[in-house]
Amino acid sequence: MENRTYTADAEPGETVTVAGWVHEVRDLGGIAFLILRDTTGRIQVKFEKDEMDDELVETGLGVARESVVSVTGDVEEEPRAPTGVEITPETVDVIAPADTELPLDPSGKVDAELSTRLDNRTLDLRGEESKAIFEIRGETLRAARDAFREADATEINTPKIVATGTEGGTELFPITYFGREAFMNQSPQLFKQLVAGSGLERVFEIGPIFRAEEHNTPRHLNEATSIDFEGAFCDASEAMDVCEQVVASVYESVAENCESQLEALDLAAEFEPPERPFPRISYEEAIERINATGELDEQLVWGDDLPTEGEKALGADVGGHYFITDWPSEIKPFYIKDHDDDPELSTGFDLMHPRMELVSGGQREHRYEQLIEGFQQQGLDPEAFEYYTSMFKYGMPPHAGWAIGGERLVMTMLELSNIREAVLFPRDRQRLSP
Ligand code: ATP
Ligand code: MG
To answer: How many CB atoms lie within 10 A of CB 218?
Structure first.
């Protein structure tokens, strides 16, 4: 829009045109106010009924909340106005009127159920808190990209329609691809490895992953955003270094650049980047410490996956982000490399937030023979993965990497109780539109 001024930039002494949504109309009798909201904030528009054209007053005060209007007028200092300035209007244009009945109250004065909010996301995002979450989500991805650049990684994009899954069949969404069976990709795992093994060496991808998770939980989506890294000539420890750096940079950037958003979410006072270095606890120590908390009915034994309750107990015990390293080979996928001196022990690691898993990673099996064996041990047919395995015959360097769940990163950082709060249009068992 030509000659438009953001409300935050309106200075006393200027004549401006502002445009946005009607946040509120307050009629005090002889004087009335229209509060106009745009992406930068709000501004007060003052109507002195006796001194103004009737038509102008009628238009300005008769407009329904959340209608889109533009107002042209003089900006004056007014210490009693919320932003210290107000506009005396010359013209008010109603650009797009809103119904008087709204499915939810964007001002947040009336709470709405999450499902109502998700069904009416456009209105919901006009509220300060929802808007703040997505501005911070944007900053998170920007900061992650910067951190990857510092780590000399190149951004890549890999296909989301694929012929085979990464980790076996149960969580795959099948689709029909010109009469053939295909799937939505669960993870860029195999593709990012194929690229790390090329001359690009260090790569990252931020993109969707699709998982047919059976259950609705507060931390699972059926379409999520994966932040992936893969580096040639990296071992698990170096991959963890990059991971820690990316997560810490995200927190630091959010702390630095999202002050008002953190305030809107009531987090400004306590928000702090996580303490570094993140402790690296072996799986063996992890199960001992979980058992020692006495929180589980049954003691964990070597080879058990960590139950949610166990993760929470250990998270409370550690009190910050931490890695769990050296998992049993049998509970990590085939592409994770085992320790050379102990085939029972893998180089797989997870990064944990005290509330939940954020990241899985590890060094990869780069030796052709051992890779084929791994497929067979996991009950997968190596022939179906020939496009992947064959490249391991032509000079595949040792490599390692990991994947962060983008929504889980935002969810834990902002203390959101449900992962759906961190997705514009979440996909879950019930939700396919909008
Ligand atoms: P979980 O055990 O918590 O279900 P996972 O071990 O199956 O996760 P990975 O395959 O390790 O998940 O994926 C790497 C990361 O991607 C996870 O640590 C998590 O942050 C994120 N992630 C995986 N599945 C989902 C999902 N369904 N919804 C949201 N994020 C997910
Ligand atoms: Mg995992």
So the answer is: 13
